[in-house]
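Q: Give me the 3D complex with glyceraldehyde-3-phosphate.
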Amino acid sequence: LIHQKKYLVDGVLREWEGATTEVYSTISSREEYQPTLLGSIPDMGEPEAKDALEAALKAYDKGKGVWPTMHVKDRIESMEKFVRQMETKRDEIVKLLMWEIGKSLPDSQKEFDRTVEYIYDTIEDYKQLDRNSAKFQKHDGVYAHIKRGPLGVVLCLGPYNYPLNETFALLIPAIIMGNTAIFKPAKHGVLLITPLLEAFQNSFPKGVINILFGRGRAVAAPIMQTGKVDALALIGNSKSANALQSQHPKSNRLRLVLGLEAKNPAIILPDAEMQLTIDEVVAGTTSFNGQRCTALKVVYVHNEVKDTFLKNFAEAIDGLKFGNPWDDGVKLTPLPESGKPAYIQELIDDALAKGAKIINKKGGQHFDNYIWPAVLYPVTKDMRVYQEEQFGPVIPVLSFEDIEEPLDDMAESNYGQQVSLFGKDVYTLSPLIDTLVNLVCRVNLNSSCQRGPDVYPFTGRKDSAQATLSVHDALRSFSIRTFVAFKDN
Ligand code: G3H
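A: Here is the predicted complex, encoded as structure tokens.
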């Protein structure tokens, strides 16, 4: 059991003596299903939030602080010190990823390794950025030394589905650019920050990173209300992002770095290579049980290949292995959110009432806190499963005759992150791609949607994102161009 009592403010690992919240694992260690107690976290509120904010403001010190003015080489040294210590915690963090969010062993290992790689790549990119900014430019007799400067204080909130990787994809570039930060881990995947607290404390000057625990509303809202935060960095849902943004009295000045909902479609054309398409759509819809912003959340299949696709897809989904994260070959694992199976059931019931059918034999079967992915067909636009971001194991399928149908739906959608397009004929694909890139930010050809490799831009149109996250882009998202100019006289 991890009873997390410490939190980091102003370089001090303070001892928490107030109320705590128990943290449970979705994984049952008994015959009869019962969530497993993993430990507890502090239930913090406004006083701690304000202390953390004061510490971050003091460390930034209106741009005069040690950290924002520190030489690039020294900032990198701090970051390297941190990541080296983090590497020694791999086994502990991977284990916590499995227990806290039910992510499979290979995916938990991948999340850890990807995060370490992300930090090293960010350091390299930061060095390059610094080398480029060292050059002077001259235009019309005016010399300029252009560089990128920090924004100020960043409030950083990560998601439960990538509690390490995506949180750090915000925090690390924000920090290395010279900002100071207040960071609160997600509700699930919170204990895995415990093994890193000392590394945070001893790698960075005091107040640069402040770590709080508790409910988002209790901790983040009072910070926003002060109006003293310069950037809101959040991966999660737009409801939380909007609520927090609106708390800020000068929200028009706030830099937003947001990764939000998506409803990425798969579009299957008549000449698609069927086995490859099925493999990719299965992975895209069910990887981490569909709890990924990049998951395929709606499937459009052309009428010509509809029957073949539905039959083989349904069989493939039923053939997946359910189990605990450490089981060999496991693909489906328990859901960390206790209310998720009931929500998925609501979506299924609504679709069934409006005329859809579950086409896979195991679809919708419940066990413990899990519900087997239900493939629903034919789905129509009045169904909740079409309208809402399900973020879980239910797969709506629509068939189409004319490609304009899915294109129109995408144009009308509130989201615009990615699409997967399956087909072979280059003369059909080429003009289609030209349209799709204007509707979303990444077109995946004959492959499912994904964020990585992390050097590629990760963003979205409409309600799906604000700013761009990738090794390269995040450094720009957390900074602003500033320069010194002088005349040739
Ligand atoms: O949940 C959203 C993540 O950005 C998805 O990342 O495509 O690497 O699983 P991924």
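A quick observation: The radius of gyration is 24 Å.
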